[in-house]
Amino acid sequence: MTYAKLQKVNMKIALEIDRLTKIYEGRVNALDGVDLEVKDGVIFALLGPNGSGKTTLMRVLTTQFRPTSGVARAFGHDVVREDAQVRKIIGYVPQEMSVWTDITGFENLLIYAKIYGVSSSSRNKCIQDALQSMGLEEVEGKLVKKYSGGMIRRLEIACALLVKPRILFLDEPTLGLDPSARKAVWENLMSFKKEYGTTVFFNTHYMDEADLYSDEVAIINKGKIVKFGTASDLKRSLHSEIISFLLADDQTGMGRLFRSNVLDRIKALNLVDDAVVHGTVLDVTVEDGEVALPAIMELLNCEGVKLKRVKATNPTLDDVFLKYAGMRQQRNQSGYHHGPN
Amino acid sequence: MLECVSKEINQVTTMAPTESLREMFAMIELEMRRLRHDRTEIYTRAVQPILWLAVYGTVMSHVRDIPTGGIPYIDYITPGVLLQSTIFVSVFYGLTIVWERETGILKRLLVAPSSRYATVIGRAIASGVRATVQALIIFPVAILLGVKFISNPLYILAAFLMLFMISGGFAALSIFVASLMKTRERFMGIGQAMIMPLFFASNALYPISLMPPFLQSIAFVNPLTYAVDAVRGLMISGNVTNIFADFTAVIVFDILIFTAASISFRKIIE
Ligand SMILES: Nc1ncnc2c1ncn2[C@@H]1O[C@H](COP(=O)(O)OP(=O)(O)O)[C@@H](O)[C@H]1O
Ligand SMILES: [Mg+2]
User: Fold this and answer.
1) What is the predicted ipTM?
2) Which of A114, A229, A340, B225 has CA atoms 20 to 30 A from the CA of B32?
3) A-interface mutation test, from B19, B30, B31, B182, most A Cβ less than 10 A away
4) How many domains does chain A have?
5) Does residue A207 sit within a domain?
């Protein structure tokens, strides 16, 4: 294919990432050969546990530092060689707080508008639009240090939206916010996205956020993309369901479960993929619940483990994450409850 | 709006000087807006220099041994005190940068379409403006304390230009130090350790001729010496024979330190 043709094809692709690696100080292998493609106009979630390399990838994509090897392009522009062009088409909100707190929300936007060179004739309109998209009109004149966490986040996003970027990068946009503030952030973002068709690339370690708001998800673990697809693809890919056993909360039953390797014996059963205990819940991942359930029940019964309740559920993104990233989310951290109980 | 952004993508141009200027002005505006919202800092920082003038200056003026060239001692030290107060603002400006590095502000500024040099120079100049405002607060107090300034407004203007240039340079020095010392505590330590020696190893409080030879050689490379000489000539003594050399020395200092700060700034967020 000629270069010109390649360019044309690229127009539909917002981000192309090819064998990207980043080694910090010659030691920490933060990115270990990342390949990804993000289509124009989608909301893309990069999901991974802490330390998996999400921030590092975003900082390479936003031209903050060079990768150790590999290539990344934003709308055809190489993030290393054409970094100035890339900076003109992206908006970015880092994980940490990124607004000046000793001036007002309006003034923050004004300074950014000036840095980005928004002409003085359209400046006020751009600022008002951004304030409105993020629902901040009423507090624009207040000092940012008086804002709540959710308001600060929305202001940061407003600063990034000011110039209507083609790609918006958000690093853990709702980290540390309570559920209603998270919801407000996403509702505003979704309606902005609907209006302008901006591509959104966000990092998160909240399953439910990726599930609810993304068109596509990639799971990253230890600097590698371990799974990529839509949230429902990923869930379907498990071909399995989960049976949750709520154990009677008595010490002897729990003790038995652990003493005589019951867990390992359950895992060894035919059709059983995995078994995990959280508190008083035993989750068993099975391929065919109707066949596997009687066998598991019999085993538990023989060992004298008493049960309160049994429930079967289809896999959630949480389970996908467990399988591919080898760890489970802390449920109560995320605010939006789901799962067997 | 989307269309205008797309149009911009096609203009494959390098950073235009207007863009850099734009960013510098935005940084100055930011500093002015911060000042407007919280003026207490500028007043509290005026207390110490005013005490230097009112107490130290008044007491020492009874000591006739310091050869000030016939100028009252309080008048003699006024330029030094003005400079010290502005340099204090500049040297601690690096703290703002360290704070902005700890939060995400710097990351975000570096992702904006402007050159990193413009960011550094803009911040240093903004700090210079802030420092000059600091001097403007002390100036009328000095008049009230009886300090006699040269009445030529051009001289006073040139003196404030010097104050601005030297404070911009020290702010760049502070940004340079901030990009090396990445924690607030270490930065505070260095900042404190820098100011007093700068002040004492200069002609701010006494003529260089009174110093031991070792201190004299430090004073000779201390940019503050040249700034004090210029400001004293322009504001107090009216003797401006060295003015050209003084400004040249400070310009050389500014160029060197702005370059060093711009280069080291790339490393600050890594
Ligand atoms: N500036 C840095 N210097 C050295 N190591 C770093 C730096 N930033 C991140 N790391 C390391 O790289 C790995 C990935 O970190 P990061 O990209 O921040 O992950 P995430 O955003 O998914 O939590 C971690 O092991 C982290 O300790
Ligand atoms: Mg991170």
Assistant:
1) 0.84
2) B225
3) B30
4) 2
5) yes
